[in-house]
UniProtKB/TrEMBL annotation:
GO terms for molecular function: mRNA 3'-UTR AU-rich region binding; NADPH binding; quinone reductase (NADPH) activity; zinc ion binding. InterPro entries: ADH-like_C (IPR013149), ADH-like_N (IPR013154), ER (IPR020843), GroES-like_sf (IPR011032), NAD(P)-bd_dom_sf (IPR036291), QOR-like (IPR047618), Quin_OxRdtase/zeta-crystal_CS (IPR002364). Residues 11-323 form the Enoyl reductase (ER) domain. PROSITE patterns: QOR_ZETA_CRYSTAL. It comes from Georhizobium profundi. The keyword Membrane does not apply. One of its GO terms (cellular component) is cytosol. Pfam families: ADH_N, ADH_zinc_N. Keywords: NADP, Oxidoreductase. This is Quinone oxidoreductase.
Length: 325
């Protein structure tokens, strides 16, 4: 038996039940890992509430990011060994002391990176990698707007954009979060609780607009995000922490400057083993080089996952948050 957080019925944070579960031996192509740390992400809320359906329905153990040590391997896994330090991104299943996982979803963690850091950066860091390197190949001299700049993805994005040489504008919801974003490399920070972010972006860019807007907020920042783009700019919607964009009128894209729009996901971009390994390597290289630093700003016990969700949804957290088994 091992301890895990289980959702039996969709609902609020109270739906996260801390209980004993049985973890069997790994089957063919599987690994059993003992987890050192688990990443907290807003997508976990979506699975808890039912906004995103769990792959195999309910009950479900939420959580899609973690790191730990391999304790057993199933048949056919010849690229890992018991004792290997590994990290992963998956759809669900992370909120547990031990878990089974398809071994081809695991990547080895370099010796220079500790397991808490690995757990804190896999989903967030590889999200920045695909957004900046593949959804749009960000180049030096380009200007981008990144919403939720003080979040876990946002703080990595600021550092990554600075390393590339792009100008990055970020939005936040408080002066304290603005300070965090500036420290992470943002050239300009807009506090949308007291400023009109569309007007400020136009002012900062001299009326030109941004080449790309990266938006994980959704409802609260739409359609303002489109008004921050230059003609033929790209709107990247990769989350919806404030709620989904509803009744989207595709004609807006033409009326606001022949804009492009995409709704990418990490799982599509890293669908194959080579893509996953390349994405993880790019991230590990950025961290090992010192160009991107991963700060863990909050830690909760796994048993306190409900409180972690309350704080996340209330926007009380900044940067990266870990659950510790």
């Amino acid at each position: 038996m091992t301890k895990a957080i289980v959702v039996h019925a969709h609902g609020g944070p109270e739906a996260l039940a801390y209980e004993d579960v049985t973890v069997g031996a790994p089957g063919k192509g599987e690994a059993l890992i003992r987890q050192a740390a688990i990443g907290l992400n807003f997508i976990d809320v979506y699975f808890r509430t039912g906004l995103y359906p769990a792959p195999n329905g309910l009950p479900v153990i939420p959580g899609g990011e973690g790191a730990g040590e391999v304790v057993a391997l199933g048949e056919g896994v010849d690229y890992l060994q018991v004792g290997d330090r590994v990290a992963y991104v998956s759809a669900v299943g992370a909120y547990a002391e031990e878990r089974l996982i398809a071994a081809d979803k695991l990547v080895k963690v370099p010796d220079a990176i500790d397991l808490e850091t690995a757990a804190a950066m896999m989903l967030k860091g590889m999200t920045v990698e695909y957004l900046f390197c593949r959804t749009h190949e960000l180049k030096a001299g380009e200007t981008v707007l990144f919403h939720a700049a003080a979040g876990g993805v946002g703080l990595i994005a600021g550092q990554w954009a600075r390393a590339i040489g792009a100008t990055i504008i970020g939005t936040v919801s408080s002066p304290a979060k603005a300070d965090l974003a500036r420290a992470a490399g943002y050239d300009h920070v807009i506090d949308y609780s007291s400023e009109d972010f569309v007007a400020r972006v136009k002012e900062i860019t001299g009326g030109r607009g941004c080449d790309v807007v990266y938006d994980s907020v959704g409802k609260d920042t739409f359609p303002g995000s489109l008004d921050c783009l230059r003609p033929r700019g790209l709107f990247v919607s990769f989350g919806q922490s404030s709620g989904p964009i509803e009744n989207f009128d595709v004609g807006l894209l033409s009326r606001k400057g022949s804009l492009y729009m995409t709704r990418p996901t990490l799982f599509t971009y890293n669908a194959t083993r080579p893509e996953l390994e390349a994405s993880a390597k790019a991230l590990f290289d950025m961290v090992e080089s010192g160009k991107v630093k991963i700060d863990v700003n909050q830690r909760y016990k796994l048993a306190d996952a409900a409180q972690a969700h309350r704080d996340l949804e209330a926007r009380k957290t900044t940067g990266t948050t870990l659950l510790i088994p």
